[in-house]
Amino acid sequence: MKTVLVADEERDTMQMQLNELYLELPELPFKLKIVTNVDDAIHEFSRIPYELILSCEFLPDPMAGMLAHV
After folding, report:
1. pLDDT at 62
2. Please, what are the domains in the chain?
C-alpha cells in the first residue's frame, strides 16, 4: 500500500477533509499520516519511505525563535 505524509498545522481541518475524501472514495489505495510540525515530518520521513509528502507552506519552523537570540 502506498503511503502519504501530510504536514499541516491545522490537523483537525485536514482530518475532516481527508475523512470526506475517504467517504467519497473508500477504495483509495494509500495510507495517510498527518503531522503538525517540521520536526514530526522529518521524524516520520526518516522512519518510513513515503511515496508522497504534502506540506503547508506556513508549517511552523522548529528553529523559528532561535534567530532572535543570536
Report:
1. 58
2. 2-59 (3.40.50.2300)
